[in-house]
Amino acid sequence: MAAINSGSTKSNPKKANLLDPHFIKHILDESVTEIVTARRYNEDYVALHALWYLITYKKEKNAILITYPIEGSFSTGLVISSKLPRFSDMYTLTVASADPKSIAANKPVHLTKSVTKWFTRDGVLVESLFWQDVNKLIDEYRVNMAKNGMLIQRERLVDEVEIHFIYIVLRGAVLE
User: Where is this gene product found (predicted)?
Assistant: First the structure.
C-alpha cells in the first residue's frame, strides 16, 4: 500500500533536545498519531479520555493511540504502543489489535530503530524518514492481517465442505 503522506511540509519542523529522551519520545509519539490518523484510523476518544489513565496503567502501559477499525473493513482497531528505555536511543513501536481475542485480530508487529536515524544533529525530526518507517510497519500489519483473513476464509471453506460432505453421507444413509 502506498504511503498516505511522506511527512510534513510545515515551515516549523519538530525539534527536540537530543539529550532529553522523554521529549524525543513525545515528538515521535505525536508524529505516530498523525500518521495513523492520516491512514483513516479514527481515534477512540472515549477510551482515550474517559479511561485513559486506567487503560495505560493497568493494561497498556506504553499505549499512545487506540483506534476504531477503518470503516467498512474486516479488522479490529489498533493499539499503537511505543518504548524508549532510559539511557537508550532504541525506540520501539508496536502495532497490535485493539481486540486481541477477535477472529480478525492479527499478531503484533514491531519496529525497533535508533532515534538517531530520524533526527538531524541539530535535533530536527526528519519526518519523511519517520513517516516512511511507520507506514511500512502499518503496511506489514495490514499484509499479515490480509493473510490471516485468507486463512480464516480457507478454514471456513473447509468447514463448509466438511459439513456438506457429512450431510451427503447422512442423507445417503437415510435413503438406503
Answer: Endoplasmic reticulum membrane
Q: What single string gives the DSSP state of each residue in 34-87?
A: HHHHHTTPPB-HHHHHHSHHHIIIII-TTEEEEBPPPTT-SS--EEEEEE--TT
Residue 77 in contact with residue 41, Cβ under 8 Å? yes
pLDDT one-digit tens code per residue, 59-99: 556 788 888 888 877 778 888 999 999 889 999 999 998 88
| Alpha-carbon gap, residue 74 to 156, rounded angstroms | 15
Beta bridge partners of 119: 125
Look at the pTM and tell me if it is higher than 0.85. Answer: no
Say how many C-beta atoms besides its own lie within 10 A of residue 145's C-beta.
Answer: 20
Q: Report DSSP state, residue 90.
A: E
Strand pairing category for 90-97 and 63-66: unpaired
